[in-house]
Amino acid sequence: MTPYAPLWYQSRDGLDLFARHYPGDGPFPLLCMHGLTRNSADFEDLVEHLAGRYPILAVDQRGRGESAWDPEPARYQVPVYAEDMFTLLERQGITGAVLIGTSMGGLIAMQMLAMRPDLVKGLVLNDIGAVIEAAGLARIQDYMGKAPVPVTSWGEAARQTRAVNGLAFPDYGDDDWLRFARRLYRENSEGQPVIAFDPAIAPAPTPGAVRAVDMWAFYDSLPDVPLLIIRGALSDLLSGDCVAEMVRRKTRARAVEIPNRGHAPALDEPEAVAAIEAFLGELRQGDDAPGG
User: Is beta strand 227-232 parallel, antiparallel or unpaired with respect to 253-258?
Assistant: First the structure.
């Protein structure tokens, strides 16, 4: 695993928040933001491919990983996360970054673009887009609406991880699931795995049938910056039709579909890595050009 420097900073409302800082020599930094129940460990494999070429910040949003839990769960929402990210960039003296967001992290990235377009050099959206499909929302609501089942061993943690995520990674074996679990859990003082997020992050269940979330008006209002959309071919949260329309509506957008992956690709897949490297390479060429 690529070594990183632990970076602690305080949110504007007083929470101690954590990020991993991977040094690099590139012309712009990458800000990597995870999904709902995940944390900065999600980007370990992508960092292996990009290490040294770009400064990278992989964050733990409030209530996840090493970051503090919020005593006011109502603050677990995208605009607050975006403000936390602005605080981090400001503390690091960063005036421009490429945002890489998986699922909820992609929503944060779009929110940041809407609020501070001057800070955003480009976006990578991992399996999230202008329409959030009802099937994926219902699945997430189903598992988030249940109390986490305590586990007593890493084997149990791996089995529970597979039960929740198996549809997204149909080719994973036992070793893959154990590695996955070690990113979602951490050991408590008794040496037992516990989930690495505050259960209060779960959004309130929606009464009645779950409906798709239409964000086309928001998407259309965003500045037309370089955009890479990554979709898992098996995704139940982002449809292929939505991706095609997103590309049609933004002149600087492109997309790649990752075979045999659901929501959301791990970003270690060869197709994902190749697309991200090409996207960043083009941005880098533009940044290095005179006047870039």
Answer: parallel
**Per the structure block, which two tokens stand in for 36?**
């709902």
Segments making up each domain of the chain, as ranges: 5-132+215-287
CATH architecture of the domain with residue range 5-132+215-287: 3-Layer(aba) Sandwich (3.40)
Peptide bond between residue 264 and the one before it cis (omega within 30 degrees of 0):
yes
* Sequence-separated contacts (24+) of 83-87 with Cβ below 8 Å: 83/11, 83/12, 84/11, 84/12, 84/17, 84/59, 85/31, 85/33, 85/59, 85/112, 86/112, 86/115, 86/116, 86/119, 87/9, 87/10, 87/11, 87/12
Element containing residue 228 per DSSP (H, E): strand 227-232
Output the pTM of the full model. 0.96
For the stretch 155-166, pLDDT in tens is: 999 999 999 999
* Tokens of residue 194, six digits: 């516990």
Q: What is the pLDDT of residues 23-44, one digit of tens each?
A: 999 899 999 999 999 999 999 9
d(CA 88, CA 266): 24
How crowded is the C-beta side of 227, counted as CA atoms within 13 Å? 24
